[in-house]
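Pasting as-is:
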Amino acid sequence: MMQPAGLKNILGDQVPGGLDLVRLIRDGLPIDAIDHVMDGGWLSAVELDRIVLPRRTLSNRRKTGRLTAEQSDRLVRVVRLLALTAETFGDREKAARWLRRPTSALGGEPPLHLLDTDEGARAVENLLGRITHGIAA
């Protein structure tokens, strides 16, 4: 499981760990979390629209200032995998290229495209574990 430090690097310092993070997700992350991900260059607006939440929904959430629990959970899942990928490759640029390049180990899909579902995220996490342990895909 990704340590809170990896999440904090991407989402900002307001991210707690453990059960406090669960509570925050259930209450809904502040909309600033989305801004932090985009401002940090981790995801483009198009990618965010595709795997986290549509632009129209984001516009509506800006009015309330918070994401829903489901949206927060999806964002944390994606951010956890972004951080794990950067950690695995030891370089953010290499990680970004790998995430966006189709790979045969994932049925020809770019890993980033699979992060919109829990099962897809698990497949990416599994592959990253294999890469970390030298069991190349």
